[in-house]
Amino acid sequence: MIAKNNINFRLIIQSSIIDQIVFNTKFFIFLILVAPMILISFIFGRIFPFVRNSLPVLFYRMIVWLISIKIEYEGNIEKSKRCNLFVSNHISYLDIPILGSQFPLKFVAKSEVKNWPIFGFLSRLAGTIFIKRVKSESLLQKYKIFKLLSEREKILIFPEATSSDGNRVLSFKSNVFSAVENQNFFIQPLVIIYSEINGIPINRWLRPIIAWYGDMILTQHLLILKNLKSIQAKIIYLEPVNSKDFTNRKDLSKYIEQKIYRAYSLSLSRKKLAG
After folding, report:
1. Do residues 150 and 134 lie in contact, with contact meaning Cβ atoms separated by under 8 Å?
2. CB 38 within 8 A of CB 123
3. Which residue has the higher pLDDT, 196 or 270?
4. Domain limits at 148?
5. Average pLDDT over the chain, rounded to an integer
6. Cβ neighbour number for residue 28 with a 10 Å cutoff
C-alpha cells in the first residue's frame, strides 16, 4: 500500500538521532502522565461525569502533542457547541485524537475495535460506543445512541464506516443516522484534512503516510508516524443542520455527504493551486 520506493517518501520519514531523542523524551513524559490518568479514569470515570468527560479530551491533546500535530480551524466553532451529533469524513486513526481533543465526544466504532490491543482498552475508557454491523442489533444500537443524544451527550460518527485513502470522501451509510431520523437534534458536519508533513505539502503519493486504509499493518504505520517532525491538520466546521428538517435518514445522509464531499474537494483543490 505504501510507496516505499518513492524517494521523496523515504526522505520525509527519515529521522535524525536528535529527532529520535526528542520523540523518545516526549514519549517518556507521555507515559508518566498518562498512567495515572488511566488509573483515575478506571476508578472514578463511572462515578463522576466530569472525570469521564474531561480525561479523554486531555488524553487526546497529549497524543496530539506527542505526534506534533498542528491543528488549524475554519468555520464557526461556537455554533457547534449547541450540536448533539457530529459527523466527519474518516482518513486515519489520527482523526480520533484530533477531533477528540476539541471537546468531550463519544465516538461510534465497530465492535471489533473493542478487542484491539491497547487501543481497545483506551477506547472503552473513553466511552466509545461499539456497534455491530448486523441487522439483528440495529434497533438496540439505534435506541442506545438516541438515549445518549437525549441526555445531551455529544456523539461523533464516521458515516463512511471505514477510513479512506484521503484522496476522496467515500459514500455515506445512511443507517448511521437512524437514531436522529425525524427527531429534533442539531448536527455538526465536520471536514478533517491533512495538508502538510514536516512542512511539505501532502500530495496523492504522500497521503498514505497519514491515511490508514485497506490492508495496511497498524504497527508499521505507527512506526512511520513516530519519525515525523510535524503534521498539519485542519478541521472545517460546516453549517449545522437540524435532523427534523429532513424527510428521512437517507435525505439527511445524502445532504451531509454532499456538503462534506464538496468542502473536502475544494480544500484539496486549494492545496493543489497553492502548491
Report:
1. no
2. no
3. 196
4. 12-274
5. 86
6. 10
How far apart, in whole angstroms, are the C-alpha atoms of residue 185 and residue 241? 8
The residue behind cell 526528542 is 22
Q: Which amino acid is at 125?
A: L
Does residue 3 form part of some domain? no
Is residue 7 one of the residues assigned to a domain? no
Grid coordinates of 140: 438496540
Residue 238 host element (H or E): none
What gap in Å lies between CA 171 and CA 175, rounded to an integer? 12
Go through the chain and tell me how many residues it has: 275
**Is 81's pLDDT higher than 60?**
yes
Residues contacting residue 23 through CB under 8 Å, at least 6 positions apart: 15, 66, 226, 227
The band of 215, judged by pLDDT with boundaries at 50, 70 and 90, is confident
The secondary element (H helix, E strand) that includes residue 233 is strand 231-237
- Grid cell, residue 88, equals 466527519
- Number of domains within the chain: 1
